[in-house]
Design a protein that fits this description.
The complex is a heterodimer of chains A (116) and B (113). Chain A has 116 residues and is mainly beta. In chain A, 0% of the residues lie in helices and 53% in strands. In chain A, strands 2, 5, 6, 10, 11 and 12 form a six-stranded mixed sheet that branches. In chain A, strands 3-9-8-7 form a four-stranded antiparallel sheet, with no helix packed on it. Chain A has a two-stranded antiparallel sheet with strand order 1-4. Chain A starts with a strand and ends with a strand. Chain B is mainly beta and 113 residues long. The chains are: A mainly beta (116), B mainly beta (113). The A-B interface holds A 33, 35, 37, 42-47, 50, 52, 91, 95, 97, 99-109 and B 2, 31, 33, 35, 42-43, 45, 48, 50, 55-56, 58, 88, 90, 92, 94, 96-107, 109.
Chain lengths: 116, 113
């Protein structure tokens, strides 16, 4: 079965704290993509990052970094020095090649609240 | 701005009615997807079109249908609406049918009363 688990339902931090959002996925496919999306209070879904199953290199983009570990089927997201504007729901998603289509399987999301 | 346009932004309708949601993908994107976001089900994949052809179906009810037109815009038709159909409906587009990132529109919030 294909599944994405975001065990943290809600996280609350104070500004400037570092925070890590966990994502664990399940698939038997060897070829897949992983994504993170942000959903701010305004409601739209904003693409953050894509990673394919053959690229385990970690990535850093400003205050954001992602740690992909196939051995533990995890694709965790860290925000360094969090800011109030980071308050949002964050979704991890899995895209499988099976059938050659791009069906995104989303986790339940983690609601991050950053307080001043 | 993702470049994906959805109309209308809000829709309130009565049970039993039929509505049409419209989506214009990003320029150059050939693939269009529809997702439903509700409190109890989360984000659920409904259907995907690629260059006018249906490519994949997810948890889409028989009362729902979609199509992608030659100009690549897409419409999602919801009929015989029930209270439980109230949700945020997202359209997304991507360049290819698999692998490329999907960019989402702002969604259409449907309220069935």
């Amino acid at each position: 079965a294909q599944k994405v688990t975001q065990a943290q339902t809600e996280i609350s931090v104070v500004e400037k704290e570092d925070v890590t959002l966990d994502c664990v996925y399940e698939t038997r496919d060897t070829t897949y993509y992983l994504f993170w999306y942000k959903q701010p209070p305004s409601g739209e879904l904003v693409f953050l990052i894509r990673r394919n199953s053959f690229d385990e290199q970690n990535e850093i983009s400003g205050r954001y970094s992602w740690n992909f570990q196939k051995s533990t089927s995890s694709f965790n997201f860290t925000i360094t020095a969090s800011q109030v504007v980071d308050s949002a729901v964050y979704f991890c998603a899995l895209s499988l090649f099976s059938g050659g289509y791009n069906k995104l399987i989303f986790g339940a999301g983690t609601r991050l609240a950053v307080h001043p | 701005d993702s470049g994906v346009t959805q109309t209308p932004k809000h829709l309130i309708t009565a049970t039993g009615q039929r509505v049409t949601l419209r989506c214009s993908p990003r320029s150059g994107d050939l693939s269009v997807y529809w997702y439903q976001q509700s409190l109890d089900q989360g984000l659920q994949f409904l259907i995907q079109y690629y260059n006018g052809e249906e490519r994949a179906k997810g948890n889409i009810l028989e009362r729902f249908s979609a199509q992608q037109f030659p100009d690549l815009h897409s419409e999602l038709n919801l009929s015989s609406l029930e209270l439980g159909d109230s949700a945020l409906y997202f359209c997304a587009s991507s360049l290819t049918h698999w692998g490329s990132e999907a960019f989402f529109g702002q969604g259409t919030r449907l309220t069935v009363v």
